[in-house]
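Much of the work behind modern protein science is quiet bookkeeping, done one molecule at a time. The protein below has been through that process, and both of its lines are reproduced in full.


***
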Amino acid sequence: MPVESIKIIKQGSLILDTFETPESGLLALKLLSGVGGGSTVTYIKTDYNILVDTGFDYEIDSSPQNLVRNHQDLIYALERFSLTPDDIDLVFITHGHQDHYGNLELFPNAEVLSSIPLARKGPIISKGVKDGSSIADGVRVVYTPGHTFEHASLLLETKKMRYTMGTEGAGRVMGVRELEVAIAGDAVASSAHYAAKKSWNYNEDFISDQMALDSLKKIETADYIVPGHGNIFYNFLKPRSPGRS
C-alpha cells in the first residue's frame, strides 16, 4: 500500500542561510539566538513506522546537559503526535553527520537503515540498503551523493490524504491527491538552497557541487520536498501539468 501519512515531527534549522558566510560573530549570534542547527525529523506511516533522521541540535556542544536536552526535545516532539520511541520500527539515517543521527540511542528496538557506503563507513551501526530499493510500501531509497559521499534520500508515494479542520458548528475537510514526496536530507538543505540550486558545502567531507546538482535531478519528480533543515515545501521547480496542483 502507499504511504498513509507524513508528519514533520521536528523542524530543523540552519545556522547559515544561503546568502551568509561562516563568520565567527554571525555564528555566535545565531547560537545565542537559539538556532541549534539540528536536522528535520520526519515520520512516515506505511506498513512500518519509519523515522527519517533524529534531529540533534547544537552538535558542537558535547556536554551531558546538551545530550539530555536533545533526548527530551525529541521525546516531547514525538509525544505531540501520540508517538514514543518504542513505536518506531525503522530509523533511516540520510548521512553520517551528528545533527542527523545524534539521538539514535533513543531507538534501541528499531532497525537502523542507511546507504551501503554509510553502513560500511560509520559512524553509526546500520544496515545498508541498495540504491533504488524499497524499504517499506511506498518508500524507495535514492542515493544522492554530493553533500557527502554516502548521502541517501527517500522518495515516497502516498495515497490520497485528507485533513479535517474543526470549525464552529461544522467541520471542513481538505483533500490531497496522491503525491510523490522526497525526504531529501542535506541533498536539499532548505527551500532557499533549493531555489538557488546551492549546496551546503561547509562540511569537510563535502564531495562536489556537480555531484550534488546531479543528485537533485534524482528527486526533481517529487511534488513536495522535505529538506534537511526546514519544513516541507511545494516543489516550485517541477513543471506542472494542466489542472494539477
